[in-house]
Amino acid sequence: MAGEKEEGLQLLDLWVSPFAQRCRIALAEKGLAYEPLEQDLSNKGDLLLRANPVHKKVPVLLHGGRPVCESLVILQYLDEAFPETPALLPSDPHARAHARFWADYADWKVFECGTRLWKRKAGSELQLQARREMVEALRILEAELGDKPYLAGEAFGFVDLAIVPFAAWFLGYGRLGEFSVEEVCPRLAAWGERCGERESVARSLHPPEKVYEFIGYLKDKYGDK
Questions:
Q1: Would the pTM count as exceeding 0.90?
Q2: Sheet-wide strand order for 9-13
Q3: Of 62, 75, 81, 150, which has the maximum CB count within 10 A?
C-alpha cells in the first residue's frame, strides 16, 4: 500500500509503552509502513518536545512532519487519513462509541491502577486499595468479554488492539498485587494469549518478564520509599 500519501510516516515511541504499542499494532493492521523513532523519556529530545509541547510524551505520529498526539487520537487519524486501508473502528455509530468507551476505560482505570500498584509502597493501604481496584477493573473487562473470542466480537477489532498492550503488564500487576490474572480472570487471560497469536500484536509487544523488569525499574526510581 505504499504511495505518496503514506510517505513520511514516523512514530515517536517507547518500546514498553502500551500507548505506543497500540499505534504500532494499528499501523501493522492497516499495512502502513513507518519509521519507528525510539525516544529516551529520561532525556527528552528536541524532536519530541517540538512535536508534543503540551504533554511531552509518546506516542506521536508524524505524517509528513506534522504531529498527531495521543494514541487514541492517532488511531482515529489513521482511519481518516488512510480510508483505503482496513478500518480500525467499526462503521456503526453505536459500535464505534462502544469501542471508544472501553478503550478509554482501559486508559483511565487499568493503567491508572497499575501505576499506583508499582508506585505505592508494598503492603501499604494505598497499594492494597490499588490492588482491589485493579482486580475489579479486570473483572469488569472480563464481563464485557463474556463468551466472545474478542472484545470486539467474533473478530479482532479496535477495542482489542487498544487494550491488548496492557496484557503484557498482567504478570507485573499480579506480582505486585499478589494475585494471578489467570486465576482471577481466566477468560481475560486467555483473550490476551489469543490476541498475542496475531502477527501485528506479536511483533509489537514484549515478553511479560521483560515488562516486569521495567516495572521494577520504575518502582526503584519513582516509587514510594
A1: yes
A2: 35-38, 9-13, 60-63, 66-69
A3: 75
